[in-house]
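for the writeup, i need someone to sanity check this before i put it in the appendix. the sequnce is what the collaborator sent (i think, or maybe the updated version? ugh). structure was predicted straight from it, no edits. if anything looks off just tell me and ill rerun, i have time this weekend
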Amino acid sequence: MAANAFDTEITETPEALIGPWRRPRQMLQAQTYDAHASIHDDATAQKLGFKGGTIEGPTHFSQFAPLGARLWGQAWFETGCLSAHYRSVCYEGEEVQAILSKPLPGTSLCQIQMVKRDGTEVLRGTASVGDAPVATALETRLDELKPLTDPVILRDVKVAQTSKRQSVHMAFDQNMGDLYPFSLREKLAVITENSPYYAGTNNPWGRPIIPMEMLSVLFQYRSKDDALPSKGPAVGLFADQEIRLVKGPLFEGEEYEVEREVVALSGSRRTESAWVKTRVFDKAGSVVATMLLNMATLKDSYAPYEEEYRQLYGAGK
């Protein structure tokens, strides 16, 4: 059914489906938010201890799409879910490989992993279709989170805060704004796994569909119009992300509405994290997709962090 979706060369073993080595492209060098460059800008990234501008996490989701389509066929495009914890950054020019372990008998949930040539793990998590009875990687992770204590950057952000609904769409030649300064057509020219499903009508739905990695762009497109009341300027990065299709696929040029809800706050030695659930609605008001995103803000990137911490909590952190 979805046999003509990709011509990606897939290696099949008794345990797993393995994609080819790819070099994803970095398209966010010009990204700006809080009126400054982002972690994807070389100079900004180097100041924070990275080698250079990092490749945005959901770019890697494309390499799993042919594996999901091979395993589940059309269901992958309609109810597929990728749930990933990003474990190390990837730079342009580095080669990465997607690995999908086959599901246990009677389940529709698989472990996924992406690795570099030297074995470094870029991400790990789960892939699934439908309403899997087994918890996804991030559903499990949410249950185990340590709550955020002594927040500085996120001190005004509260769990259950929900944004107003926003209308969003993605046309082929539409520049997706300051956060995503490129178009769908420009992305399709460099995407690691292209498909005729993305560009034309030769698919089961008769319309161009949006690749899973670009759903992240669509859902975040207007997020700054109703931003969380976090302190800044500061630099954030995607630490965890789950994209789930409920009534997919989503289509090029179609109008959708999104709303965002803060579902958890957590922290680490270097970061403060807001976990935001985005719900996406079609014109009829049905939920067609969801995204869970952990945007981790680097404490060191917020200039007055130490001073404000002392003002709020007394002693040094």
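Confidence is low (pLDDT under 50) at residues 30-41. The chain has eight helices and 13 strands.
thx in advance!!
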